[in-house]
Amino acid sequence: METQTPPPPRARPRTRAIYLLPNLLTTGCLFSGFYAVVAAIDKHFAPAGMAVFAAMIFDTLDGRIARLTHTESTFGKEYDSLADMVAFGLAPAIVAYQWGVVRIMEFGHYWGRFGWLACFFYAVAAALRLARFNARAATADKRYFEGLPSPSAAAIVAAFVWFFSEWQGHEPGLTGLIAAFVVTATAGALMVSRFGYPSFKQFDLDRRIRFVYMALVPLFFVAIAIDPPTMLLSMFGIYALSAPLLWVGRRIRRAVRGAPTPSG
What is the pTM (predicted TM-score) of this model? Predict the structure, then answer.
């Protein structure tokens, strides 16, 4: 007598809540960018800078959570891009504008225009950078970013304003204001450049490392905790300048190799 085997159990459908998790994190990124704008309008520049870095944390988590839970979607990618434009495009530009344009206009009408245009150029560059990233995401090399990532550019602008608002007082002078808008415009230019920046997406968290490297991790966080704006500005500034400096170094080496040797 044949015994019928029971049918295999049906796979339990995923609940909608798990699909909401990455989008909730993206909403946190969007909220942080919105809060940075509101704080800058209220002249609270240190909290505005902190909010930009909070947006970076949410932006890092939403993509990783989506990949880990297999909940990536076209909607999530579009929503993430729009949130990035607010948090890393508009928010840093408005923070820099609110902090510096009113002050720099005291030194002349044309200085005010310079600051206004620097902030607008940054916002446009962020939009172009995000559009280029979305258009080339399918074919781009995952190991590198083409141009400075918008979160890193936002970190430089936010940390610069945060640094001056906490340690240099509320009156940076003409030199400090010019430096702020030069940094803002430079960050925008690096976003739309073709310099290659390491993405660290291929970093394997499971691989073994030397104990001394692990011991340095607490020191890294302690240094940030002691002086957040200075350390964050230094870190992201070095990352932003690394690609142009490496490019210049390669050009110099090629010129030296191609130079004719003097005849004896």
Answer: 0.84
